[in-house]
Structures are given as C-alpha cells and as structure tokens.
Amino acid sequence: MAEPFSPIVPRLRLARELKRLREIARLSLDHAAKELDVSTATLSRIENGKQGVNVHLVRSMLDLYNGSDCWNELLDLARQARRKGWWQEYGISDYGYVALETDAAVVRDFQLTLVPGLLQTSAYARAVFEAEGDVPSRDIGRHVDVRMLRQGRLHADEPLVLEAVVHEHALRSLVGGAVAMREQLLNISELAALPNVTLHVLPAAAGAHVSMQGAFTVLSFPRDVLPDRLYIAHSTGALHIEKVDQVRAARLKFDRLRGCALDPDASIRFVRQVAGEL
C-alpha cells in the first residue's frame, strides 16, 4: 500500500485537529459554522469524524482558525481521507467497525454468544448473517467475503494482534449445524496457535462475571495515531466510544475477564475437546 493507513485514520485525525484549532481560536461551533457558510450540524459531524470534508473547506477553516503552522499537514490529511477504502467495493460503510479494524494494531475482543469475527469460518459467518436477518440475502455473500478478507491481517507481515476472551456458550452453540460447528472449532484451535493470536475460554462453570450484559471490543492503533476505541454491537446497531473513562473501564473489564478464563494452552485444549464431542 502506498499510504500507511486507510482513509479512516486520516479523517479522524483531521477531525480532532480541526476541532482543536477552532477551540484554540475561541470560536463557538455556531460562530464558526456561520463564517464557513455551513450548518452547525454539518460542522459538528465533521469535527466528530462522521462526515468527510473537502480540501477547499479545510483551507477555509485553517484561514478562519489561524492554522497556517499546520497547513500542509492538515491538507495532506484531507487528501488522504478522500481515498476509498477496500471495503467500499463490498458495499460496507466507512463509518462501521470494519473501517476502524483495518487500521488497528491490537483488537481485544470479548464474546458471549458468538465466535469472534476474526476467527469465523465462511460457513459459520454465513449462518450468522442468515439467522440475524439484517443483511439482505443477495448481499450475504459479499459480507462473508469481507469477513474472510479481514482475517488476512492475522497472517500479514505486520500482523494484527488479536486477544480474545470467548465464553463457553459461544463454543457450544451449534451455529450452522454440528458439522459446520466442528469445522469452526477446529479453525479456532488452528488460528489460536498463531503467535499474534491469544485465546482465553471463559468456562460456563466460572459463573457470573463482569460483563454479563454483553460483548465488547477495544481497538488500539499503532504509533498513537488515534486513542483506543470501544465498540459495542447491539441488536439494532452499534456504539463507537472514545471517551477515555469508558474505554479505560472496558480495558479493565477485559483484563478481569481474562483473569477468570483459562490460559491459552488450556483454552486450545478445551476448544478441541468440544470439537471432539460433535
């Protein structure tokens, strides 16, 4: 790749810097929006990284905010942010999880009822999409392809680091049937042997734990280009959280869950044992 990151990191970095410069200039959101001839809602979405911004508007913002000292850097970020991510060819939004994971260095994933996406087989993924019903039948194949492409980063020269805590329930639920689930469990045991993948199984016998209400994922990025982000999927969508206290709380929960779970070697043996029962 010619660029070190996908378009998402430049867009989010640009958003943070533009907000910082506006605040240094002591301009309110309403005042700045009026001067830039955009709506307050539009400027707010730009500053939150929820909407792209073209180079011409960035120039106007830098003029208004007296940001000449970082002119070249921010214009370069604006140009990088206009590129298309690989996932767009598959109809996946720039504002979802896949785009962020593409640039992450470490993924810490706790799952209660599902195998982590980075460890799923195509048959398992297809069965999940079909059961959930959120993706039209004609699009399921493309979504499965995206999930498989994501896993390529586990085998890259600079691989993604995955730390997963998976509840026993996720391993015993026969998603796609017994044959497909056995294949899935064997796939988990193979991937868990990679040096950049750490699997911890949380046995049902462990009882109550600190995240009974649901799964969550914490994404960490290389070279501090972005702060850690917390991702929480739910039945009708997902939350993207970057508030430091909430992300820190999730990291602490993940550490506590890992402490209650089996160690990596015992976890792989457990997964193989469950596979052997099918």
List keywords for this structure.
single chain, 278 residues, alpha/beta, 434 Repressor (Amino-terminal Domain), 6-stranded mixed beta sheet, 12 helices, 48% helix, DNA binding
Mind explaining what this structure looks like?
- The structure is a single chain.
- It contains twelve helices and six strands.
- It is α/β, with parallel strands linked by helices and 278 residues long.
- The chain folds into two domains: 8-83, Orthogonal Bundle (434 Repressor (Amino-terminal Domain)); 88-276, Endonuclease, Chain A.
- It has a six-stranded mixed β-sheet with strand order 3-2-1-4-5-6, sandwiched between helices.
- It comes from Gandjariella thermophila.
- InterPro entries: Cro/C1-type_HTH, DUF5753, Lambda_DNA-bd_dom_sf.
- Residues 18-72 form the HTH cro/C1-type domain.
Topology:
Blueprint (H helix, E strand, L loop, with lengths): L7 H17 L4 H8 L3 H8 L7 H11 L5 H11 L15 H7 L2 E6 L10 H11 L7 H11 L10 E7 H5 L5 H14 L5 E6 L13 E5 L8 E6 L2 E5 L2 H17 L3 H13 L2
Parallel strand pairs: 1-2, 2-3
Antiparallel strand pairs: 1-4, 4-5, 5-6
Helix pairs in contact: 1-4, 1-5, 2-3, 4-5, 7-8, 10-12
